[in-house]
Amino acid sequence: MGWRTIILTKEAKLSLRMNHLVITSDETKTIFLEEISSIIIENPSISMTGHVMNALVAAKIHVVLCDKAHLPMTNIQSIYGHHRQSKHITQQIAWVEARKELLWKILIEQKLNNQAKLLQYFQLDGYDEMQLLVGNVALGDTTNREGYGAKIYFHKLYGNHFIRGYDDTINAGLNYGYALLHSLFARLIVSKGYLTEIGIFHKNEFNQYNLASDLMEIFRPIVDGIVYQMDKDVFTKENRRALINLFEYKVEIRGKSYYLTQAAQIFIDGCMEYLNTGNKGRLQLPNLDYKVYKWGV
Fold first, then answer.
1. Lower Cβ count inside 10 Å, N or C end of the chain?
2. 4-76: in CATH 3.100.10.20
3. Which CATH architecture has domain 85-292?
């Protein structure tokens, strides 16, 4: 599993040489494929062959292509992610509703707890209110504690004037960071032989990544913390770099510290195992220890 994040901002040509990625631009750089975790392609004029794209997918490298505004637009992933894909999809379609409801309850409890800890880390109000919500999440979150918590959380973090979805710098940062997380989870889910379209809570017919939307929820506060420390006047190149660095962060899971991509894999494996077997003991939830992160730019 690689650990390096490669950001391509200039017009360049990508090629392969003896299991290395060769980047030819103003200068030529050669990087061992096994060292690469993610590639963020910000320049739409990057040139690469289908052979290169297939090699990146085979090496399980997370590849994101940005649009002209440098916003994540496309991720490259395999159509057939696993040799037992048919079996896994059959299992996914038959997931028991009660298991999905319990898993969603657990995920929302963890998300609210992670949000509360972020407020506490930045010495903001709201920790106690968020913790009260954690203890009142129903199966399937039928009382929408997540939505109520979001109102408290975002107002405490970004101010009472903040409205999610508005066209401003904070929302631009959140959208950028969440898109990076979304693409990572979508690729990992496909690599394990499951369909991203079939979620446990998100069921939007226009969202082809419903399952990724479900499972990335508890990791969102990593993005929120980076955006909190950004320049709020304009969304800059430096802000994008700070958000891309989230792939370099360590997350504690299963009693050890892992890079975000590795932790996400362990987390997804546990969720799939629980949904397939009902063994709750297989769940592995991440601990976001904000003190170890280098926030901001």
1. N
2. yes
3. Up-down Bundle (1.20)
